[in-house]
Design goal:
There is one protein chain. The chain is of the alpha/beta class and 218 residues long. The protein has helices at 8-16, 35-38, 52-61, 97-106, 124-129, 136-145, 168-178, 185-195, and strands spanning 2-3, 23-27, 44-48, 66-68, 84-88, 113-119, 152-165, 204-216. It is built from eight helices and eight strands. It has an eight-stranded mixed sheet with strand order 1-7-8-6-5-2-3-4. The longest helix has 11 residues, at 168-178. It is globular and about 50 Å long.
Length: 218
């Protein structure tokens, strides 16, 4: 499986701000897929992730970043020690979005940036994921929360990235593994139904439609 081969995510990040020589904190780095796109450009790249297994993968994947097991709800860092805080597909996983955003605001100086990257409910990949977990209500709640977080919205970028799977088996295996579920016939059939005729294609191409919001601390 190949995700975002053209690095559209990095292009959008760079369209928001100059990453070079900046101190960046990424919240929710997962296995480090996005981290490795920008880490070499930064003066300092620190990524946090609460999941131990994912964090170990990130630590082995990205040599240019410091990986710390922590939560965005209680950042183990001093105030104003980063220039940019980047929520990488992670804000909607926090139990309190305003608390997480307040912590992000705390660790940047006035003029510092908070970048929030999230999938959109209409994304093809996100709709495919509904077979396993419906996150639409969380994503909608994040959108409603952002105007109340006492940060200034300076830009919003809607864009799509491409995903490529070898075939249906590759796609099914990836998502069962991602959601830590054992394969079962009911969900496999639901995935096939969603894909329709494309379930028989090789390779299978899908798109993930994303929203990147750039916020600034006044």
């Amino acid at each position: 499986m190949i995700q975002d081969q053209r690095r559209e995510t990095l292009k959008r990040l760079l369209s928001c701000t100059a990453i070079e020589k900046k101190r960046i904190l990424e919240i929710g780095c997962g296995s480090g897929r996005v981290t490795q796109m920008y880490a070499k450009l930064a003066q300092l790249a620190v990524c946090i992730e609460p999941d131990h297994t994912a964090l170990n993968t990130a630590a082995h994947t990205v040599a240019d970043a410091a990986c710390v097991r922590a939560s965005g709800m209680d950042l183990p860092f001093q105030s104003e020690c980063f220039d940019i805080v980047f929520f990488s597909f992670s804000l909607h996983h926090h139990p309190d979005y305003l608390t997480a955003l307040s912590e992000a605001k705390r660790v940047i100086p006035p003029g510092g940036l908070v970048l929030v990257l999230e999938p959109t409910p209409e994304s093809e990949i996100q709709r495919f994921c509904k077979v396993f977990e419906d996150e639409d209500h969380c994503l909608t709640a994040v959108e409603k929360t952002l105007p109340d977080c006492k940060l200034e919205t300076i830009s919003r970028h809607r864009f799509s990235t491409d995903w490529e799977f070898i075939d249906f088996e590759d796609a099914a295996e990836y998502f069962f593994r991602y959601y830590s579920q054992s394969p079962n016939t009911e969900k496999r059939n639901a995935l096939r139904e969603f894909l329709g005729s494309q379930a028989h294609a090789a390779p299978i191409h899908m798109t993930d439609t994303l929203m990147l919001t750039c916020l600034r601390r006044p």
